[in-house]
Amino acid sequence: MTRCDRGRRHKWWRESELAYIREHAGRVPAREIRKALRVSREQLKGAVRWMRRRGEDVDLRCFSPRTVVCPSCGMARTLFGSEGICEPCRISRRLAETEAEIAGLLPLLSPADRAVYERTEAKRETRADPMPAAPRTAGMTAYERARAEERRDMAMERWQADRLRRLLKAAQKRKERVSRKVGKGRK
Predict the structure, then answer these.
(1) H or E segment and range at residue 77
(2) Contacts (Cβ under 8 Å, ≥6 apart) of 93
(3) What is the domain partition of the chain in residue ranges?
(4) Do 90 and 98 contact (CB within 8 A), yes or no?
(5) At 6, is the pLDDT very low, low, confident or very high (cuts 50, 70, 90)?
(6) How far apart are alpha carbons 100 and 94 in whole angstroms?
(7) More confident residue, 20 or 124
(8) DSSP 80
(9) To the nearest whole number, what is the mean pLDDT of the chain?
(10) What radius of gyration do the chain's Cα atoms show?
(11) What is the Cβ-side half-sphere exposure of residue 110, based on CA atoms within 13 angstroms?
(12) 65-123: per-residue pLDDT in tens?
């Protein structure tokens, strides 16, 4: 039961129209809501203002995410390579390949060198940055909450990619050392 102040005819809102606004606000562009209800921009804004005064969480801003779901891991991602998978998935595949190459080289080592690698295997460490914190969404509108969650998804993707890059670099260095020792043992 809102009223437009611009001299237009007074719009009495039916409960079904308000329910339609509640259901579609933030999910569908306001232009489409106006078109479906056959109301002007000001009439729709007035209805939303009235609903907010009643304590309802209604926001007409429609959030369109910049992230896409990775087909490999199912996470919301922004960085995709030519393979069609996200950066963390691509790096973790390279890491698995490098670890498999190391596993293939270890039997070629001398028994003494292999014993050293087996003993120190559990002690491998890589610097770890703290994981991004989850956003505090209490008191946010649905639009703000969706934006905060998307920013966290993007931060998590960067964090995972950086962590996996460090692990990959360490594994490549380890492979290099093992292959150097294998080469010395064959001479």
Answers:
(1) strand 76-77
(2) 85
(3) 1-62, 68-186
(4) no
(5) low
(6) 10
(7) 20
(8) B
(9) 86
(10) 28
(11) 9
(12) 888 899 989 888 988 888 889 999 999 999 999 999 998 998 888 888 888 888 887 67
Task: Say if strands 76-77 and 68-69 run parallel, antiparallel, or are unpaired.
Answer: antiparallel
The tokens for 38 are: 């056959």
**DSSP letter string over 44-75?**
HHHHHHHHHHTT-----PPP--S-EE-TTT--
CA distances from 12 to 21, 31, 38, 45, 184 (A): 14, 20, 13, 14, 88
Q: Is 66 left (phi over 0), alpha (psi -120 to 50) or beta?
A: alpha
d(C-alpha 162, C-alpha 129), whole Å: 9
* 3-state class (DSSP) for residue 90: helix
Percent of the chain with pLDDT over 90: 40
Rounded-to-integer distance, Cα 58 and Cα 45, Å: 11
User: Helices in the chain by DSSP H: which ranges?
Assistant: 15-24, 30-37, 41-53, 87-105, 111-120, 142-186
Distance (Å, whole) CA 117 – CA 174: 10
- Expressed in angstroms, the distance from the first to the final Cα of the chain is 91
For the purposes of burial, counting CB atoms within 10 Å of the CB of 179, is it exposed (0-12), middle (13-18) or buried (19 or more)? middle
